Amino acid sequence: MQTYSANDIERILRLSRSTLRGLIKNGFVKPARGPRRELRFSFQDLIVLRAARALIEAKVPRRRISRSMTDLRRHLPEAVPLSGLSIGAIGDQVVVRDGKNHFQVDSGQYVLSFDVSMKNGVLRV
Question: CA-to-CA distance for 58 and 56, rounded, in angstroms?
């Protein structure tokens, strides 16, 4: 199984070392240790870190990201990895897609998705 170093993560995902340390500290990922005690990340870790980067880029406050991921991890069975979920942002809220449904992590409320289009000057929902 291929693993990735912290330098690889910085290069691939453009995450700073301090952001990476914070994500590890908050339990987003649990990297293994290599033969020289260096951090080694799995492909699943890479997927979760990519989702975290997307939340950061969506300007979701870091405190909300941490709180949301902690809540999500607490409510999920241990066998369900975060890498198996589609995690994103709507506004400044962390949202998880579960099949066709979307729900806010903080509140557990479902998010309704409306398709809106404009055709011939008429708004269609």
Answer: 5
Q: Which two tokens stand for residue 15?
A: 């995450």
> How far is the first Cα of the chain from the last one, in angstroms, to the nearest whole number?
47
C-beta separation of 78 from 87 below 8 A? no
Write the pLDDT tens digit of every residue in 51-102: 888 888 889 888 888 888 878 877 777 777 777 778 888 888 888 887 777 8
CA-nearest of 2, 93, 9, 79 to 43 is: 2
- Order of strands across the sheet with 93-98? 86-90, 93-98, 101-104, 110-111
Token look-up 């033969």 returns 35
| Dihedral sign for Cα atoms in the order 32, 23, 12, 55 | positive
Residue 111, H or E segment: strand 110-111
Read off the tokens for 57: 């880029």
CA 74 to chain centre: 15
